[in-house]
Design goal:
By secondary structure, the protein is of the alpha/beta class. The chain is built from 14 helices and 22 strands. It has 4 domains: about 140 residues, Alpha-D-Glucose-1,6-Bisphosphate, subunit A, domain 3 (Alpha-D-Glucose-1,6-Bisphosphate, Chain A, domain 3, 3-Layer(aba) Sandwich); about 80 residues, Alpha-D-Glucose-1,6-Bisphosphate, subunit A, domain 3 (Alpha-D-Glucose-1,6-Bisphosphate, Chain A, domain 3), CATH 3.40.120; about 100 residues, Alpha-D-Glucose-1,6-Bisphosphate, Chain A, domain 3 (3-Layer(aba) Sandwich), CATH 3.40.120.10; about 100 residues, Alpha-D-phosphohexomutase, C-terminal domain (TATA-Binding Protein), CATH 3.30.310. InterPro entries: A-D-PHexomutase_a/b/a-I, A-D-PHexomutase_a/b/a-I/II/III, A-D-PHexomutase_a/b/a-II, A-D-PHexomutase_a/b/a-III, A-D-PHexomutase_C, A-D-PHexomutase_C_sf, Alpha-D-phosphohexomutase_SF.
Amino acid sequence: MELNKNIFRKNDIRGRTDNGELNEEIYNVFGKAYGTFLLENKIATETVIGRDNRETSEKFACAFIKGVLSTGMDIIDLGVALSPMVYWSQFNFNTGGSAMITASHNPKEWNGLKISSGIGMVLSGEDFYKIVKKNKFKKGTGKLVGCNIKDKYIKDLISRVNIEKKLRVVVNTGNGTAGFIVPDLLRATGVEIIEHNTESDPRFPNYTPNPKEREMMEDTGSVVLSNKANFGLAFDADGDRLGLTDENGKFVPPDLCLIFLARDILKNKPVSSIVCDVLCSQAVKDEVQALGGVLHFAPIGYFSIKQKMIETSAELAGEVSGHIYYKYNYYGFDDACFAALNLIQYFSNQEKSVSQLVAELPKYESSPAYYIKVDEEKKEQLVINIGNEFKKDGYEISDIDGARISFPKQEGWGIIRQSNTTSSIVLRFESKTKEGLGEIEELFREKLEKWEVAGEWKAG
């Protein structure tokens, strides 16, 4: 059996199903390796398993389950579920093991695996690769139990919020797995829901369900406008990313959503720590500090965000990709369903519209996150080279995740980092003025041209 090492990424495993990178044989071995890992390290004797609605997920889940059972590990099979439902089950079943067969926001040809190394703790794909390569697996006979947790999950989440007034909300799940859960969850709070693309279709016929993509958010916004809704919510394929549009159909960046969520927490628990990733706007830091909170930057990705939350005892964390992590009144993992409920709760307590609330936030000119395709083997060194170039020019560099460069003259910053999930580098810029933003972008273009990087800048 051949394995492509590049599918084992920092936060999980991601690979294509149309070229043999992932198949049933590989998932069976993954199951054997995971069961062995949990048992040998005395982490768990039982694990929860879920899958998304992709065409390959059911057969891959069956192969994985067979592998896990063959080690003597017991399984609670959730069937079709969201990633946050799998994490939630860990806490509610008190089991150190969890596995989710999903490629999250990736296109339909992809699949993957998210696994834990204890309750609320992720096992990185890089570490899992070492376990798989050992090829020494325990043998036994585990027990399999099926469990439908949908009603209990919904009941728990709505018990944690108090929505003051009825709102009209568009819900777009992009034909992904979230359509099984989100409409029922939000209706249970009394919110009026306009469903859009909530039917399950593993072909993703309209677009890949990913709130970072312009196509999904523009479509959500158009439905908001035509239905005169208060705002729109979009969810990725496995329900751990959330996107927001205002009542005018305009996209509201997730880092600005984080500000609204932080306000509620800091009102009830002042001086709390909040974590955000290195791509987040300076507006988040300005607002959190003005409210008496403490903001901490962290590298992008579940593994790094969770580590920083534990290190700083943070109550809330967010990424510009739309991942929102709640420790306050919750369990500390990223759950787009719970984040959506808290946004609805916040907006239901406001007299102003979403666009009016956004207009009051600190003003910065920000670029989208740009993705440029780069060979997987070259992207790490390229980021180092560009960072060193700016350092030689006398700029202050933060190397928390890639290179985030401060530009005092332009009252802004720019960042270059390698993507955790694709063969790309990621760029983002911000300044107090449009002129400053353009100057920062041009400085990066000059550096990239010097290193012969000429790929398309795709906004994500």
